[in-house]
Amino acid sequence: MRQKVYAGHAVRRLREKLDLKQGELAQRLGVSPSYVNQIESNQRPLTASVLIAISRTFAVDITTFGAEDLDRLVADLREVTADPLFSDLGLGLQDVKAVANLSPAFAHAFLRMHVALRRTAEWRASLDDMLTAGVPPRADEAKLIPYEEVRDFFHYIDNYVDSLDRAAESTAIALGLLDRADPAGAFAGHLAHRHGVTVELGHADPTAPLSQYDPRLRRLTLSGVLSAPTRAFRMAATIAQLEHADLVAETVASARFRSQTAADICRLALFNYFAGAVMLPYRRFLDLARSLRHDLDRLVLETGASLEQVCHRLSTLQRPGAKGVPFYFAKVDRAGNITKRHSATRFQFARHGGACAAWNAHEAFEMPGRTLVQLGEMPDGVRYICLARAVTAPPLRHGGPVRAFALGLGCEVSFAHDMVYADGLDLKTAPVAPLGVSCRICPRRDCDLRAFPPLDRDIRIDENVRDIIPFTIS
Prior knowledge:
InterPro entries: Cro/C1-type_HTH, HTH_RamB, IrrE_HExxH, Lambda_DNA-bd_dom_sf, ScfR_C, TransReg_Diox_bact_type. By secondary structure, the chain is an alpha+beta fold.
């Protein structure tokens, strides 16, 4: 194992689910009751032998006892506790680690409360502005929360949904997609023969919906502005809607979202998840990615999928017993807004605000079409191979904007041998970019790209000294 696994909360939850006392669990595992007590209180890590004993005795997936979820939870708590609201409490790294380890459910509840508090504060500020301007207020203060709630759901399951992924793979096998490079034709034929749905390609009308399914006429209309991979993707999503609505509903119900809006957003995201999974079936794509050492251009050519579809799919290859390289994936616009973010790694994205200015995703806009390779290090000392490429789409009408965004994909340097992009890169001597989650929680004191001070540190101003950053951090 790459690191010690402290998972007392998981062991305690398993024991309580089985209605066992600590002594009874110890007897089943062949260890002492005091050892079980120390494990549950996170005084001792889970050893490989105990993990194996738990797996064999209770038939549970030992990957659920991993530390990656706790790493992400700690990072999220660190960002939230940097809020000035908590500045007088002196909450440090060890405090948030203790909460995340001993009671992750409480930590998630705390994060939800902070998001709600932040949105309420923003709503009050906007309400003051609207009243001053004479604009009638609307009760929409929580409309952004559902999106964050759905993002967190995928964030904490490593962006992998086992039941849906396996269903997609079965569909791909049944349609013969493992041996053919025309998924669109297979999907159109399947929709027609099994569901009586006709697929029509509409005009290249930028004002029309990109896709529209009419359940009464059983007709799926796809806009002529869509690329071939996107047309196939929309057909696959319609197949998910028609054939796997119950499976999607079960997944949504298990997430226990707080609002119907969040459930609706997640339902659409899961239909799209199926579409990506059926276009790039798990084992076939995993084997192909490994054989090509994750060469993105080759993967696009071999599969016929778009670059974004390939990058997104790579970030989902986390099936227990057949995991691929754990990647993070992000989509960033020119303003630095992260419009998509998924991570099966310890790499963290800011929950609020823009991304680190030192990250090569921003530089990619200056060199569209080129894959930039960066060796980056997060404040926790973990290093990553960071890939970034800018992609542009032409305007849909005269005078329309050119749509541009950057795709970011990366993995820890321990997987460098699996990456063609690490060839020729001396991991010991290559320059390392000091990355952070966001300026508001970044502990680095010597970053020339810092936009504003960290919220959990005091700053000093010397009127007689002027440097690139006009303050020093305590």
